[in-house]
Amino acid sequence: MDQLHFEKITSFVEDRLRPLFDAETGSEHGFGMDDTSRALRALRGTVSSAAAVKGILEQRSTAETELRKVMDQTLACNWDQLVAVARHWEDHPDFRPAFKRGSWDFETQPSGPAAAKG
What does pTM read for this prediction? Predict the structure, then answer.
């Protein structure tokens, strides 16, 4: 998996979450202290945290072997979190088959644009 994979799945999930913070949906735009607002903020925070991998991906190729293993585990965990959230919209027309892929389905080495297909 590479940066493009993370960008695509994050964009898909954020496009589903953004309307939930609109005034028309109530819940004080997700910033109130009601349970719905708290749940929305927690979900949005989880997605944002899992998507924050740019620095890890940039440094991975030059990292020492042991550090690279930790980076790979971090990337896998973050990817799998995003997949778990995205799969709730599996029936959405913008859902892509790549959003079903587990981290173990990707090559160990992140590759270029060809890896982002699907």
Answer: 0.81
